[in-house]
């Protein structure tokens, strides 16, 4: 593998997304070769713009060396895309992070049953209890629980999994030394002791809204499935579910109150074909035959301090992978009518599609957005009913439904 500093250098280039970095690696093979190439060699690579070439031509290692020194001082591990320890599941997604920063002990996730538990920050007591019990029962059964460490469902699921004595992977949208939300410092420490905290952002990076959709692709990418607990219509959890489907992962959804706004998104996933689960045992049943030496069947019981036990053992049923169906027979949208209802990134992505872009790469090139921002915007256009995803991750604008 190329020297680690070259991987860090490539990942730290401003304005480069994972897709652009991947295009460079496809052309040159290693980040060291990317670094040593001449300016003329960067031309003609899909997704590489003139401003990228200007950065690549500076050959400046100062930022990479600063990051590596910081990681050494803080005790963080840097896992590069070319490292044997890099999860193969994550390596095979469309836009894998060039490096992962890790605090704690990285499990061999490719050999484990790993499930992400996601949901709204503004959850009800029902959602808190369901997330806590689900995390606990998954951990007690031998599964690794992945969360985004946010308030609400994420925090409850994390605490439940820790009470269950299992390994936990927390994927965050900031540097590992930046605790967000700020009250979660102790929870960060506990996860690092019992598993690992992961981020693609170097130490010192503050949490920003654009970081969380980028984080979500890692949550789903290292998992076999994503369990959605209490998510409203406009929710980061639905972005994670969309990325999970794109990556070929299972999507589970917990039924919620049909009158509760906090459950509108998760209930809609069920209507569209997500795998329903009434208890964590339903999720365990999906993977028990695939990992017979890892998964333990448990007697139904509540975790310490939970409101109540699940009391609902899973029904025996054959494993059946389900995909969320896309809406069919939708007419094209009147493009001019929707722009005022979209935020900046969504508007840029919609304009790119309206100008003829169809693939994710086309949208990135035409809009000037980074890969993470473009994918998040496209996912939100889907969720809002303004765009439809077709074969090969192509996008078209549609009538709002």
Chain-wise SSE layout:
Layout: H1 4-11, H2 18-28, H3 31-36, H4 50-56, H5 62-74, E1 77-80, H6 88-91, E2 99-104, E3 114-119, H7 125-140, E4 144-147, H8 153-163, E5 168-171, H9 185-194, E6 196-199, H10 211-221, E7 225-229, H11 236-246, E8 250-253, H12 264-271, E9 275-276, H13 280-287, H14 344-354, H15 360-367, H16 371-383, E10 387-389, E11 395-397
Describe the structure.
- The chain has helices at residues 4-11, 18-28, 31-36, 50-56, 62-74, 88-91, 125-140, 153-163, 185-194, 211-221, 236-246, 264-271, 280-287, 344-354, 360-367, 371-383; strands at 77-80, 99-104, 114-119, 144-147, 168-171, 196-199, 225-229, 250-253, 275-276, 387-389, 395-397.
- The chain is of the alpha/beta class and 401 residues long.
- It is globular.
- The termini are far apart.
- The chain has 16 helices and 11 strands.
- The strands form 2 sheets. Strands 1-2-6-5-4-3-7-8-9 form a 9-stranded mixed β-sheet, sandwiched between helices. A two-stranded antiparallel sheet has the order 10-11.
- The chain has 3 domains: 4-76, 5' to 3' exonuclease, C-terminal subdomain (DNA polymerase, domain 1, Orthogonal Bundle); 109-287, Rossmann fold, CATH 3.40.50; 335-397, Arc Repressor Mutant, subunit A (Orthogonal Bundle).
């Amino acid at each position: 593998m190329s020297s680690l500093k070259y991987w860090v250098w490539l990942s730290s280039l401003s304005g480069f997304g994972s897709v652009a970095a991947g295009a460079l690696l496809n052309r040159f093979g290693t980040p060291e070769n990317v670094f040593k190439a001449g300016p003329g060699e960067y031309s003609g690579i899909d997704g590489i713009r003139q401003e990228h070439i200007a950065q690549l031509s500076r050959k400046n290692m100062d930022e990479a060396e600063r990051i590596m020194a910081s990681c050494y001082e803080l005790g963080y591990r840097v896992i590069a895309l070319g490292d044997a320890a890099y999860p193969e599941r994550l390596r095979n997604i469309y836009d894998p992070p060039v490096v992962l920063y890790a605090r704690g002990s990285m499990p061999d996730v490719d050999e484990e049953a790993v499930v992400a538990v996601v949901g709204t920050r503004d959850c009800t007591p029902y959602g808190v209890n369901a997330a806590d019990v689900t995390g606990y029962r998954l951990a007690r059964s031998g599964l690794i629980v992945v969360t985004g460490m946010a308030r609400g469902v994420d925090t409850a699921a994390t605490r439940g999994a820790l009470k269950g004595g299992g390994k936990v992977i927390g994927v965050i949208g900031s540097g590992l030394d930046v605790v967000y939300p700020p009250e979660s410092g102790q929870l960060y420490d506990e996860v690092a002791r019992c598993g690992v905290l992961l981020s693609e952002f170097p130490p010192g990076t503050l949490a920003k809204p654009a970081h969380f959709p980028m984080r979500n692709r890692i949550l789903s990418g290292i998992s076999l499935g994503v369990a959605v607990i209490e998510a409203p219509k406009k929710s980061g959890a639905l972005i994670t579910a969309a990325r999970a489907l794109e990556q070929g992962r299972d999507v589970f959804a917990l039924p919620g109150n049909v009158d509760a706004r906090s459950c509108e998104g998760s209930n809609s996933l069920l209507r569209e074909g997500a795998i329903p689960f009434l208890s964590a045992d339903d999720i365990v049943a999906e993977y028990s035959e695939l990992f017979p030496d890892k998964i333990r069947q448990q007697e139904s019981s509540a975790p310490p301090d939970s409101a109540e036990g699940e009391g609902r053992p899973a029904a025996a049923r054959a494993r059946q992978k389900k995909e969320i169906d896309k809406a069919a027979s939708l007419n094209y949208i009147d493009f001019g009518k929707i722009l005022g209802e979209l935020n900046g990134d969504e508007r840029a992505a919609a304009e790119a599609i309206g100008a003829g872009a169809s693939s994710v790469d086309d949208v990135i090139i035409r809009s000037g957005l980074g890969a993470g921002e473009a994918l998040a915007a496209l996912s939100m256009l889907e969720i809002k009913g303004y765009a439809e995803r077709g074969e090969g991750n192509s996008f078209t604008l549609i009538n709002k439904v």
